[in-house]
Amino acid sequence: MEILDGKKISNQIKEEITVEVEQMKERGEKVPHLAAVLVGNDGASLTYVGSKVRSCKKIGFESTLIHLPEETTEEDLLKQVHQLNNDPAIDGYIVQLPLPKHIDEEKVLMAVDPDKDVDGFHPTNFGKMALDMETFISATPFGIMELLKRYNVDTEGKHTVVIGRSHIVGRPISILMSQKGKPGNSTVTLAHSRTKNLKELTLQADIVISALGVPKFLKDDMVKDGVTVIDVGITRVADDTKEKGYYITGDVDFESVSKKASFITPVPGGVGPMTIAMLLKNTLLARERHNG
Ligand SMILES: Nc1nc(=O)c2c([nH]1)NC[C@@H]1CN(c3ccc(C(=O)N[C@@H](CCC(=O)O)C(=O)O)cc3)C=[N+]21
């Protein structure tokens, strides 16, 4: 069994980006500038956005955090989005999800300039991704593909079962895994909450990608020997004995499933840190495009 060490690989990627940023500086070019918009005070969102900003500092990017109150109106948020679209100093930005209930997420994501959409959530970028065109690929699926690539996990002709059909993980990763390329060329089954024979499917899977958000959902009796398991679920479980008041767990019952797996991602330290690294990678690509 080999651990797909997202923490380690994400640090490698960040080091690679740091070198590129230094070269940009030497050429007298502007360095990448990432902005993040956060509405409200969701604990997990604060952690992620904080971690993105810290990473920017570490690798030499400029960063801007726009923290708006929970009561921000949709209109005001859209104004902020247009401001970012029109600000030549900003290469790319993200609007952290989830947004408060009174704001129409789709409307906001549609307003983001596709050329600055380093999350790859805009329909233009999602469409390009689905059509094998060069574009910003959403950070989480991009991170999973990069992890498989760097560990040389063989996906060619293998059966991949994706659990979860979200727009930001399940749907795009099902497309990427089926595309031509390495990694890729996989036969994909996209399972979700209405799937009836899930266990039957996962037992056939060479690769299981779980993006469900249900702690310890995937058990060892649901997978075959030698399976590759990618755990995208990150759930905070309240626990007073922990310093932070919670612990983090994935969709996978790691202890039992890892005994059968040939490759497996841990939580924390797997897909999460890769997501941040690939967001930075997309921002670097945005800057390179703007530099021409
Ligand atoms: N516009 C937008 N883009 C996103 O990419 C986006 C988003 N909204 N909303 C929420 C999800 C989730 N997400 C994570 C990023 C890093 C970790 C991460 O670094 N996790 C650490 C643990 C961090 C912790 O302590 O909670 C780990 O798995 O090791 C997790 C999850 C990005 N997302």
From TrEMBL:
Q: Does the keyword Amino-acid biosynthesis apply?
A: yes
Q: Where does NADP(+) bind?
A: 164-166, 234
Q: According to its record, what are the GO cellular component terms?
A: cytosol
InterPro entries tied to this protein: Aminoacid_DH-like_N_sf (IPR046346), NAD(P)-bd_dom_sf (IPR036291), THF_DH/CycHdrlase (IPR000672), THF_DH/CycHdrlase_cat_dom (IPR020630), THF_DH/CycHdrlase_CS (IPR020867), THF_DH/CycHdrlase_NAD-bd_dom (IPR020631)
Q: What is this protein called?
A: Bifunctional protein FolD
Q: What region holds the Tetrahydrofolate dehydrogenase/cyclohydrolase catalytic domain?
A: 4-119
Gene Ontology terms: biological process: L-histidine biosynthetic process; methionine biosynthetic process; purine nucleotide biosynthetic process; tetrahydrofolate interconversion
As its record notes, the protein acts as a catalyst of: (6R)-5,10-methylene-5,6,7,8-tetrahydrofolate + NADP(+) = (6R)-5,10-methenyltetrahydrofolate + NADPH; (6R)-5,10-methenyltetrahydrofolate + H2O = (6R)-10-formyltetrahydrofolate + H(+)
GO MF term list? methenyltetrahydrofolate cyclohydrolase activity; methylenetetrahydrofolate dehydrogenase (NADP+) activity
The EC code for this enzyme is 1.5.1.5, 3.5.4.9
Q: State if NADP is listed as a keyword.
A: yes
Q: Which residues form the Tetrahydrofolate dehydrogenase/cyclohydrolase NAD(P)-binding domain?
A: 138-290
The pathway it acts in is: One-carbon metabolism; tetrahydrofolate interconversion
Function statement: Catalyzes the oxidation of 5,10-methylenetetrahydrofolate to 5,10-methenyltetrahydrofolate and then the hydrolysis of 5,10-methenyltetrahydrofolate to 10-formyltetrahydrofolate.
Q: Which organism is it from?
A: Flagellimonas oceani
Alphabetized, the UniProt keywords read: Amino-acid biosynthesis, Histidine biosynthesis, Hydrolase, Methionine biosynthesis, Multifunctional enzyme, NADP, One-carbon metabolism, Oxidoreductase, Purine biosynthesis
The family classification in the record reads: Belongs to the tetrahydrofolate dehydrogenase/cyclohydrolase family.
Q: How does it assemble?
A: Homodimer.
